Amino acid sequence: MIELQELRKEFAGSTALAGISLSVAEGEIHGIVGRSGAGKSTLIRCLTGLESATSGHARIDGVDITALSGARLRASRRSIGMVFQHANLLDSRTALENVEHPLQVAGVPRAARRARALELLELVGLTDRAGNHPAQLSGGQQQRVGIARALASEPKILLCDEPTSALDTQTTGQILSLIASLRDRLGITVLIITHEMSVVREICDSATLLEHGRVTQTGMLGEILADPSSPLARDLVPLPRASDDPHRRTLEVALAGTPLGTVFDIAESTGTPISAVESGTLETIDGTQVGRLRLVCADTLQRERLSTALRARGIHVEEAA
């Protein structure tokens, strides 16, 4: 559905995108992550034709956006819905009228656009707020209106640029659940630009890490998490906070599909008991239990023995400090 091939963008001697190649299949929710300045927003602008790529190709459903201009580019943009960090609603219009707006611009007759807008407000759970202006809506409700507006032209792709970074934790969860349910119900492809790894963990099927305008890592979440030493895996499941006690004999391990009980079984069978689990993270992502743990051992010798035994069973030892 989305295909980027050696996409490059330069600004006055600086390189924002240094030959990005990336594929997102139809119906996937794909996360683009990276620090500020990594090239995430430039990538979105090139993908929508708001910026002209210096070289390379950006194809959506087989159409090369980088080769279009004028009316053809505007027509192609109708297959893309945009959701921003802030909903950017028109203050003077009601929720219903905000959703209608892009259809009005496209020349859709009043009755048809009103029916479509009402249908979309129902889809995002805001039928009872149709007559409210943005100032009468919460941040989460405004974002729901923004999502409904992005779906007005029945796009094939939903591009979300930091869609939850201005929301609280509870509202973020609601918006992410909505996006996931819309993908399931409508079959759309979703590309999410974010710096929040929790967003990727929550709903993404696949992810790409950008650094300095380059793809550092990309793949399905299951593949990424299968290698706990990879940059994205380390960010998705971070190491627990280190102990303040420099004398504690700890061992840091990363789990990818291995039950925690297996670690204790290995320790017991090799005579290297674990005194305690000092801290850690365990959760299920993409159907696989993953985690990073700091284990406490009785002494340095036992820690080293346990490290060897875990490695022999394919369990990744992240650090022995």
From TrEMBL:
Keyword terms of this UniProt record: Amino-acid transport, ATP-binding, Cell membrane, Membrane, Nucleotide-binding, Translocase, Transport
Domain of life: Bacteria
Entry keyword annotation includes Cell inner membrane: no
Domain ABC transporter, residue spans: 2-237
GO terms assigned for molecular function: ATP binding; ATP hydrolysis activity
Gene Ontology BP term (one): amino acid transport
SMART domains, per database record: AAA (SM00382)
Gene Ontology CC: one annotated term: plasma membrane
Subunit structure: Homodimer. Forms a membrane-associated complex with FtsX.
Matching PANTHER family: AMINO ACID IMPORT ATP-BINDING PROTEIN (PTHR43166), METHIONINE IMPORT ATP-BINDING PROTEIN METN (PTHR43166:SF30)
Family affiliation: Belongs to the ABC transporter superfamily.
Functional note: Part of the ABC transporter FtsEX involved in cellular division. Has ATPase activity.
Protein name: Methionine ABC transporter ATP-binding protein
Taxonomic source organism: Brevibacterium yomogidense
